[in-house]
Amino acid sequence: MDKGQLLYEGKAKRLFETDQSDVLIVEYKNDLTAFNGEKKAQEQGKGALNNQISSILFERLNREGISNHWLEQLNQTEQLVQHNEIIPIEVVVRNIAAGSLAKRIGLKEGRELAFPIVEYYYKDDDLGDPLINEDHIKLLNLVNQSDLNQMKEMALKVNDALIELFEACEIKLVDFKLEFGYDRSGQIILSDEVSPDTCRLWDIHTNEKLDKDVFRQGLGSVEHAYKIILNRLKGALSHG
Ligand code: C5P
Questions:
Q1: Does the predicted TM-score (pTM) go above 0.90?
Q2: Would residue 232 count as lying in a domain?
Q3: Range of 24's domain?
Q4: Which are the contacts of 65, defined by CB distance < 8 A and separation ≥ 6?
Q5: Do 13 and 102 sit in the same domain of this protein?
Q6: Closest C-alpha to ligand 1, atom 16
Q7: For the segment 102-134, what is each residue's pLDDT rounded down to a tens digit?
Q8: CA separation for the pair 55, 76 (Å, rounded)
Q9: Any idea where the SAICAR synthetase/ADE2 N-terminal domain is (predicted)?
Q10: Has residue 161 been placed in a domain?
Q11: pLDDT digits over 69-109, tens only?
Q12: Residue 63: left if φ>0, alpha if ψ -120 to 50, beta else—which one?
């Protein structure tokens, strides 16, 4: 598999063409950004950890019948994915109040929600990825209603699958962000990444934060936190 031209460079990943049509290489970077790029840093090993963690999670979601772009892990920092046209909506699912939800509607961080909350954000850096509702999505023509329904249904399935997997790792899945895209046949597939950069993950016993909030809030070593996630996932997988 030859690595071709750089197609796109984002905050945490680079996307390359390959010699196979519709197959791309994602390279996970060590860069960390928060607050819409205002806080920046690099942490050695972060890219490799997220590549391994997201490969484990995408593989599990595949087995659960949730179509996604991941094909295989290539090496420490790279994975092969299927080409897809990204839908410019970030879908956030929340099980426990934290982050912007806690702030926006005045819930105490850590409060368990009676049911999973699904939110949509418009993927637009200049606007700071604003929270949007179904009417905004319709007005902006970002995706049609039936595709939006499918994205929501898939996001809730991802939630069920990941809650179960992380519980086996003694980790609470607080919330996470997903992105979806259209494959060549027009099917909606899960895209981007699922990693501690895009999820909030707390230790079940101590509520220790083991995700990007470690960086956002200056709580210590991201590498240390993400290593705990990877090791527990590997442990859970080896026990069934
Ligand atoms: O900041 P907020 O509470 O809205 O984030 C909800 C979830 O979505 C968190 O897990 C966060 O890491 C993730 N997120 C993300 N990328 C963004 C915004 C939020 O991965 N641009």
A1: yes
A2: no
A3: 3-82
A4: none
A5: no
A6: 198
A7: 999 999 999 999 999 999 999 999 999 999 999
A8: 11
A9: 6-232
A10: yes
A11: 999 999 999 999 999 999 999 999 999 999 999 999 999 99
A12: alpha
